[in-house]
């Protein structure tokens, strides 16, 4: 097995589609143009289209020509995300964002295009028994579009045996895939801390309760939850990312607000971190005569690949790639809402190498070509490989005895 010749022949067409998406980025649950383009292409290729899940979600069902009574209910899912980020793009090439403050800085334009390339090939061949469900999901970056689609009946309407997704990964050589069983991405939780002190004159701090001073004590204390309460071999990150207090130089403010994120792989570790953060916040507030409260919201769970489906995907890739281009994915602390799908449906989330940025043409902004960077751009050279992987996964799954 290798990248599919028919998809390679459509490389220029796929590149044009990807760059069109890049030039017209849309935020979470606002992917109206993107979903219209996706739905129209699926319809043009004779694919059964369903719209409306999570508002802008698009689901295509490709029914195999080899389907009989025994295989009619078999379904495998392939998923891509469609949304962009609220960022200003610094690139100046021809396909740069046409919408100020909006940018495809994470490669979802490429993910959508690769799934379209796979859908077109599967619709033209239909050389499988059962159905392939192609899922174009909104709101991965913000809003948990995968969770919303599931809550609105994705799995009930399309009962998939397994689901497969992937993300591009800058820093991994183009043409390389990385995947591993177990946790590959962390959970993401957000917290807010409110410190209610007592305002006063900066020259008379003894008459005030300084919330900024309390915040200064909280910063190392919260890091101590990770370094002194959590087991050393368990992964977790507490990042305080905002602190807001005060209006002028000679007034001790009455209030300070802090916020940030917590990342962890296991629920037990996350439970520990949340509990200890609450105790630390309350304790330091009490010790300093301030009222401190913690609001802790769990946003995305950890992305945990299922062992059987990961072994299956790895077997498919082993037939496509030389051994040196199939590597293990070390877990990273970023989060991904495909995790919600993996909680409900067995599956695997793989990473396709996006290269080191050498693919970037003149007109790119400064900085590394990493995701969530204003000079990022998806590597169009990997479009046929990613699309071919998705086709081979679907074909082989529906040909396997499960």
From TrEMBL:
<feature type="binding site">
    <location>
        <position position="106"/>
    </location>
    <ligand>
        <name>Mn(2+)</name>
    </ligand>
</feature>
<dbReference type="InterPro" id="IPR017439">
    <property type="entry name" value="Amidohydrolase"/>
</dbReference>
<dbReference type="Pfam" id="PF01546">
    <property type="entry name" value="Peptidase_M20"/>
</dbReference>
<feature type="binding site">
    <location>
        <position position="167"/>
    </location>
    <ligand>
        <name>Mn(2+)</name>
    </ligand>
</feature>
<dbReference type="InterPro" id="IPR011650">
    <property type="entry name" value="Peptidase_M20_dimer"/>
</dbReference>
<keyword id="KW-0479">Metal-binding</keyword>
<feature type="binding site">
    <location>
        <position position="372"/>
    </location>
    <ligand>
        <name>Mn(2+)</name>
    </ligand>
</feature>
<feature type="binding site">
    <location>
        <position position="141"/>
    </location>
    <ligand>
        <name>Mn(2+)</name>
    </ligand>
</feature>
<keyword id="KW-0378">Hydrolase</keyword>
<dbReference type="GO" id="GO:0019877">
    <property type="term" value="P:diaminopimelate biosynthetic process"/>
</dbReference>
<dbReference type="GO" id="GO:0046872">
    <property type="term" value="F:metal ion binding"/>
</dbReference>
<dbReference type="GO" id="GO:0050118">
    <property type="term" value="F:N-acetyldiaminopimelate deacetylase activity"/>
</dbReference>
<protein>
    <submittedName>
        <fullName>Amidohydrolase</fullName>
    </submittedName>
</protein>
<dbReference type="InterPro" id="IPR002933">
    <property type="entry name" value="Peptidase_M20"/>
</dbReference>
<feature type="domain" description="Peptidase M20 dimerisation">
    <location>
        <begin position="190"/>
        <end position="280"/>
    </location>
</feature>
<feature type="binding site">
    <location>
        <position position="108"/>
    </location>
    <ligand>
        <name>Mn(2+)</name>
    </ligand>
</feature>
<keyword id="KW-0464">Manganese</keyword>
<dbReference type="InterPro" id="IPR036264">
    <property type="entry name" value="Bact_exopeptidase_dim_dom"/>
</dbReference>
<dbReference type="Pfam" id="PF07687">
    <property type="entry name" value="M20_dimer"/>
</dbReference>
